[in-house]
Structure formats: C-alpha cells, structure tokens
Amino acid sequence: QVQLAESGGGSVQAGGSLRLSCAASGRTFNMGWFRRAPGEEREFVAVISWGGGNTYYADSVKGRFTISRDDGKNTLYLQMNSLKPEDTAVYYCAAAKSAIAGVTVDLNRYEYWGQGTQVTVSS
Question: Which residues touch 120 (CB under 8 Å, ≥6 apart)?
C-alpha cells in the first residue's frame, strides 16, 4: 500500500502561480493530478507515465501547467502558472499500482489517492 500526501495548495490571485507536490511512501508507476471543483465531478488535469517520458494534459490547462516527477524522491509535482478562477478546486494526486503502457486519464486505473489540497484562485 502506497500513501500519497499532497502539499503546496493555497490561495492566489488570477495570473499567479503555485507548485503542488505529492510525496509517495513507496515506489509508484503511472501518476497523475486530478481535481474536483465545487459541484463538479473529479476530472483529470495532467498525467505522466512511469519514468516520466510521456505526459498528457487537459485542454483547459495545456500551456499553463507542467507535470513532472522525481523518482529519486518519490515525488510528483504540478507547476501551475497563469492561474484562473476556474482552476479553483481540490487537487488530488493519484498513482497506479502497476505500470500502464503510455499514459491514461481513466480515474479507475489509479488505485492510490491522496487526501487532496485546496487551490483557490481569486479574480
């Protein structure tokens, strides 16, 4: 069982930046960031393959967010720039129990989830 712990959330004005981190208690394979806005379903934000060679972003964050991983530190990151009020949500880190070829945005493929960190962007 792998434990995931997110950090780095907070409140920022539109146009600002935040960097989220997700510390894993053990080895992880494919990982991703997902978010849930108030009254909405959880949606994918960005995913990264085992080894970090492949990434994939939601259209709404493409060009503004960057996902990366440091496997030496068992840590996943999400650099968020040019934040917008519509980015306000609880952000969750997720990890797969075993390697998945390429990348996947299917939430059901990720067995491990963090508790989430709140990101609030004001206009």
Answer: 10, 11, 12, 88
